[in-house]
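Q: Could you fold this chain for me?
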Amino acid sequence: MSTIEKTFSNGEVIIKEGDSGNTFYQLLEGKVAVYKNYGKDDQVQIAILEPGQYFGEMAVIEKTYPRSTTIVATGDVKVTEIAAEELNDYITQHPDKILAIMKLLGSRIKAMTADYNEAKKTLDDIRKADSGNKYDGFFNSMINRSIYMTAKNFRLERPSIEALREASELVSKQDSDGEIYNYGTIIFKEGDVGKCMYIVHAGKVGIYNNYGAANKFRTSEVEPVACFGEMEMLMEEPRETTAIVEVSDTKVELIRPEDLENLFKTSPAKIDMILKNLSYRLRLITYEYFKACQEIYESTGRKDED
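A: Sure. Below is the predicted structure, expressed as structure tokens.
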């Protein structure tokens, strides 16, 4: 069996910030609290997790990062522990968990992106107004969500793309199915319902906002081997961008949620790449959010008030 059930009593530490990560967990019973700087003067509670949720998965997926938070039992807790080296065995026994883990990462990316957009708007307004006095509401929101102290003391470290690059290289060595598209082909349009995701195996795809309008904006490009469109598929939401083929003979593989279990059997490297892509995006948007919060904190004079 690839999993072990463990129990923890109230106050026991399950995961410690800074430790190397070689296991992740699914919460079966009880609740756990997520902390930054646990046990220190600037300790901050980030979240409460409930049964069914996973935690510790990012350190296992990427393998190169230490634990980013401390997880503490709140009351009596029962978890399933899955070792990193047994992740493939766990998914083989529970193939439905692939989509569940991806959706978990997707939901965290979505929530953190909303927080970042709020912080970025506030920061842009402060830069224009050269004053932070009218942004008390933003700071009250940060304090209510126990983010304020974390923003002040967050140790910024931009995530490395190395694990994602290595995962893409493994996929590039495999034979892959896909459709060949000519220059200018629209793969999906802004507003379309996101029912699938894609992997680019050859060529290039441009990602645009307001495509076809005078104010169209190219937000990014996708080159081999990388995935795109996964967030809308996981969240079952309309596309926020338009994807356009920018090089003739671009090869793109389409993946639907119902394809993931079979894809794991035939090409586990692709599943690994998708998971690493989601994990990297979450680390990056978290970095950008706290970076913006620190700049807001410093530019509004609150640093001098402490």
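A (continued): DSSP finds ten helices and 14 strands in the chain.
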